[in-house]
């Protein structure tokens, strides 16, 4: 796991990216995941909870998913702000 900072090409603002291997994700499904349901009927939206968690700064963080028009982003929420996950398989 490695934390890098990148620059947004449109706004010029920096953002954090956490490079993660798939094996570092911990499966911890919520009740609707075990019933094969989704948070929204379409599957699109912001702040969608996934069944995965990751250990970051000695704490388990829920992995969230933001999905609009068939393009999605995984991220975690921290006190310092959201950190985008770049998951390698």
Sequence of strands across the biggest β-sheet: 1-2-7-6-5-4-3
Shape: globular
Distance between the termini: 13 Å
* Rg (C-alpha, Å): 14 Å
Count of beta strands:
7
Beta-strand proportion: over 45%
Count of discrete domains: 1
Poorly predicted ranges: none
What helical percentage do the residues reach?
A: under 10%
Structural class: mainly beta
Mean pLDDT: 90
Main sheet, how many strands, which sense, barrel? 7 strands, mixed
Order of helices and strands: EEEHEEEE
Question: What attributes characterize this protein structure?
Answer:
single chain; 89 residues; 4% helix; 61% strand
Can you offer a commentary on this structure?
There is one protein chain. The protein has 89 residues and is mainly beta. The chain has one domain. The chain has one helix at residues 31-34, and strands at residues 2-7, 14-21, 26-27, 45-56, 59-68, 71-78, 81-88. Strands 1-2-7-6-5-4-3 form a seven-stranded mixed beta sheet, with no helix packed on it. It starts with a strand and ends with a strand. The model has no long low-confidence stretch (mean pLDDT 90).
What is the fold's blueprint, element by element?
Blueprint: E1 2-7, E2 14-21, E3 26-27, H1 31-34, E4 45-56, E5 59-68, E6 71-78, E7 81-88
Parallel strand pairs: 2-7
Antiparallel strand pairs: 1-2, 3-4, 4-5, 5-6, 6-7
């Amino acid at each position: 796991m490695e934390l890098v900072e990148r620059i947004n090409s449109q706004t010029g603002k920096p953002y954090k990216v956490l490079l993660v291997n798939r094996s570092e994700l911990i499966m911890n499904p919520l009740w609707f995941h075990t019933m094969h349901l989704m948070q929204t009927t379409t599957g699109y939206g912001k702040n969608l909870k996934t069944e995965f968690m990751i250990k970051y700064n000695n704490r388990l963080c829920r992995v969230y998913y933001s999905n609009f028009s068939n393009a999605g982003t995984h991220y975690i929420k921290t006190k310092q702000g959201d950190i985008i996950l770049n998951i390698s398989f």
